[in-house]
């Protein structure tokens, strides 16, 4: 059995985030990866030097090509850039009946470059989020989507409840941006209870693409038919290993090591 996952996201020329991170992650987890590119970014470990969006028509055509022939066992979205692209992606997800959808609501790159137009946030909330099986905001993204200022774990839980009310069935509010303490804690809410995925916080600046990698690993595991909670557990272990065994390339925020989980395990 060949499991297939489709990523709908932006290209990162530096290879650490976006489509490139997603495809590497799919491959490492034994899933055949396919892509629909939403935007080309000129990007490296120092930052984003340019953003060149594709038309919504070009995005739809790529998705149609994949759906018409290969099909997808799970779909992941990343950088979607505009409201037009978001609406198109939502239409395509509904048209093809894709249930195992992971929405990583990418908004701003670590260096501060905007990867989603401000006016597209409403479309993300109204059109795409209700279709998501799993949504994976980091803390600033959860704040932008809910309007809650997140300082404590209680704030995070409240943001997760609101995101669940907006329609996402499993909400992961990631903890990478909460640099208090020795651990990073990703919180998962399924509409009735919370679970916590904890790991040792690694003191490093080489975390470029961690969010993409994490969400792609969830999508890969869902493609294999895993339960969302088990998919999140594997994704957390995968990203932890990728951060713990850095490649040491680039002059800025370096990429994570996508083959670490296979080579060294957790
Ligand atoms: N320094 C770190 N040590 C260990 N895990 C981390 C670290 N930074 C981020 N992570 C993990 O990487 C994933 C992405 O986290 P986060 O940084 O919150 O998202 P994003 O990359 O979207 O900003 C989460 O699973 C988080 O727990
Ligand atoms: C093309 C592209 N897509 C997404 C991101 C953001 O990736 P993320 O995993 O959140 O990592 P950082 O940018 O925060 O390092 C991106 N940079 N480029």
TrEMBL record:
GO terms for molecular function: ATP binding; hydroxymethylpyrimidine kinase activity; phosphomethylpyrimidine kinase activity. Its EC number is 2.7.1.49, 2.7.4.7. One of its GO terms (cellular component) is cytosol. Pathway: Cofactor biosynthesis; thiamine diphosphate biosynthesis; 4-amino-2-methyl-5-diphosphomethylpyrimidine from 5-amino-1-(5-phospho-D-ribosyl)imidazole: step 3/3; Cofactor biosynthesis; thiamine diphosphate biosynthesis; 4-amino-2-methyl-5-diphosphomethylpyrimidine from 5-amino-1-(5-phospho-D-ribosyl)imidazole: step 2/3. Pfam families: Phos_pyr_kin. It catalyses: 4-amino-5-hydroxymethyl-2-methylpyrimidine + ATP = 4-amino-2-methyl-5-(phosphooxymethyl)pyrimidine + ADP + H(+); 4-amino-2-methyl-5-(phosphooxymethyl)pyrimidine + ATP = 4-amino-2-methyl-5-(diphosphooxymethyl)pyrimidine + ADP. It is an enzyme of class 2 (transferase). GO terms for biological process: thiamine biosynthetic process. Keywords: ATP-binding, Kinase, Nucleotide-binding, Thiamine biosynthesis, Transferase. Belongs to the ThiD family. This is Hydroxymethylpyrimidine/phosphomethylpyrimidine kinase.
